[in-house]
Amino acid sequence: MRHLMFITLLLAVNLAVFSQNTISGVIKNAESGEPVFSANVYFPQLEKGAMTDPDGSFTISNLPQGTYKMVISSIGFASFTQEIRIPSEEIEVMLKPSAIEMEEVIVSTPFHQLQSENVMKVERESVSELNRKGAVTLSDGIAQLEGVDNLTTGVGIGKPVIRGLSSNRVLVYTQGVRLENQQYGDEHGLGINSKGISSVEVIKGPASLLYGSDAIGGVLYLNLERYAEANSLGAELESDYFSNTLGYQASLMAKASAEKLKFLVRGSLASHSDYKGGDEVRVTNTRFNEKDLKAGVGFQDKKYKGDLRYNFNRSEIGIPEEIGIQSTSKEPLLPFQQIDNHVLSLDNKFYFNNSSLDLKIGYQFNDRREFEEHHEEGHDEEEEANGEDLEPALEMHLETINYNFKYNLPKIGNFETIAGIQGMYQTNENFGEELLIPDAETLDFGVFATTHYHLESWDFQGGIRFDNRSLNSDPYETEDGTSVAGIDRSFNSINGAIGAKYQYEQKFIARLNLASGFRAPNLSELTSEGEHHGANRYEKGNAGLNNEQNFQIDLALEWRSQHFEAFVNAFNNSVTDYIFISPTGETIESSPVFEYTQADARLYGGEIGLHIHPHPLDWLHLESGFEMVTGKLKGGAYLPLIPANSITNTFRVEFDNGKFLKEKYAFIRLKNVFDQNNPGMFETGTSGYGLLGAGFGTVLDMGASSLKLGINGNNLLNKAYISHLSRLKPDNIYNIGRNIMVSASWTL
Questions:
Q1: I need a surface site. Which of 111, 287, 521, 708 has the fewest CB within 10 A?
Q2: Which of 647, 646, 727, 639 is nearest to 678 (CA)?
Q3: Handedness of CA 576, 581, 582, 584 (dihedral sign)
Q4: Contact at 8 Å (CB) between 506 and 81?
């Protein structure tokens, strides 16, 4: 019944036709008076825009009546923002030339502003820029951002780590809904292909005010690629080759847009052999394969905007256990996972005079199956398995329905205010012989309000939120006959955030943010009972665990000039009732017993960076960034899985001019990771290392189409090293060695 109701909501799209509101204008260079070609004119609240033609002119139709912020950006010019009353007469905007890099609109925060205007600092990077650095997977690319790292099991499984927190403490958003794919487990990857993702945004710190439970560490927000401009067609063919894994990925996209109706579809494939460490030894069964389909249908007129998106992802990922057979096969050995993930979402926006209503609905189905090794006599360890020929030892179905209802109130003076409710209904069912977590239902409900106050040099933002999570699990019996009682608990929390930003001209920005967040304990922490073979221990859940509650202070200082940029970010994150696993002193069948428990913890550190781009040598860039984080329990013990301090230095050149070769670039990068001498419980220290990377590329202008080419290399000196965040570290298995990535992208 709930599925029928959900489908009915998805189809409730208002296709009524209204009279048009149109805005047009011209964009010029403030110094020369010449028109600016290919400037991006965008209304963030309406998610609608256009590009200027060779005369600097633009026209945008089907706009709702009201006052909305207009953002104009172009390479080589300072970004421009201004509130525009629609309908409006033709406008003229003079853009000031600037060596400071073009800004983009931040989507993950509620008021859709440029980074320089945002009270909360958010790291943002385009996926194409991450790919320039030779990322093998999306999670690998995200680790290039300041304050972000990657918890890995080989190359195919990676989880984002934000300032020392990961798994259920970091929320991932895609298609405007929170991604639910059993993310509590170490061996569960991101489950999203980078193709079809335009950019990533990272909120570093508690974001429960905006997103509810599980966002105490931060939020990873994935922005999908946009539809084609009105009355146009587009297509793209991409391919990448990776020398280390002898791997490839290919993607084909087509899109078309009329004045109101838009379509987009993209299919992608990826396949990799076992990766080779710096010691020239392949790590057995780190191979993986991926199939991905993304599709969208959009509709927009002056009163309504709808965006229906669907993503199917199938991943087959080997589970490495030890160094064994040396093979370049791409078919996974036993044991391996086969994970199907379906994400269906509908984003509805209704526009009124000076206000709007936003309703997002999402449905997800995650099917995780794990196939284990046979134990029959004579089994060949080189045998390759096909999931269709075997019965899974573990099969879990996770179904999730999300909703997010927000009302953007009419602006009162300098106040912008948003109020809303968010919620989730989720079921987990087991179908295999093995059981990691029991059958369960989860029900979330949250209500919140946030407001933004703007002055000439100051901006203030704050809000409050109430959340309730109800969790009900079935009792179950383990393989050895131990009975585990069911859970019927409710978790509540009230959280808030307040922040201030001061800006001096266009040069100096200071931000101070204070925020609280919470995380309800997950099913694994509450109900575990059994042998954890990967960790060689017997784990017991704790049904009496409380919420994790945290409070973080963030200070961010930024200086920007024509020749020089610098930033300093500092944070202190205090977590009450931090959940961790600790030995009890008992043994069960020769395995030590560990139980989940709680204690207060603290994480602190930050990032420092500078960027030198001397004018008039706008093509020259020198960048340096330092990251550090320390995590400790109240008693003094260090937290596990805390990334080592690191410093990254990059020298790059970029040339935009050229008759046929556009956007030429080259870079060389050295990342130095320091010793991790503060290991957590059950960890050992990790030696430091240095990784050298380099790359170059260009865009070949072919008139109606373009060809983007790039060659990028990581770990060029083939360093044999082990990351502190590698789950293969206890087995002394090296991370990936030298890898050369060759990329080509043809765009129509």
A1: 708
A2: 639
A3: positive
A4: no
Dist CA 633 CA 680 (whole Å): 10
Residue with tokens 């109240």: 634
Q: Checking DSSP bridges between strand 537-540 and strand 591-612, what pairing results, if any?
A: parallel
Average pLDDT of the residues in 217-245: 93
Q: Where in the chain is the domain with CATH 2.60.40.1120?
A: 2-98
Lookup: tokens for 680: 């957590």
**Which CATH class for the 138-271+284-316+332-747 domain?**
mainly beta
Query: Which segments of the chain belong to CATH 2.40.170.20?
Result: 138-271+284-316+332-747
- Contacting residues for 490 by C-beta, under 8 A, at least 6 apart: 468, 469, 470, 471
Looking at the domain 2-98, which fold is it? Immunoglobulin-like (2.60.40)
- Its pTM stands at 0.90
Report residue 168: phi and psi, to 5°: -70, -5
Distance CA 47, CA 540 (A): 48
Residue 387 pLDDT: 44
In this model, does residue 538 exceed pLDDT 70?
A: yes
Residue 557's contacts (CB-CB under 8 Å, 6 or more residues apart) are 508, 509, 510, 511, 567, 568, 569
Residues 219-233 have a mean pLDDT of 91
Instruction: Measure the CA angle with vertex 352, ends 349 and 356; round to 5°.
Output: 40
Confidence band for 15, pLDDT divided at 50, 70 and 90 = very low
| β-pair partners for 612 | 564, 622
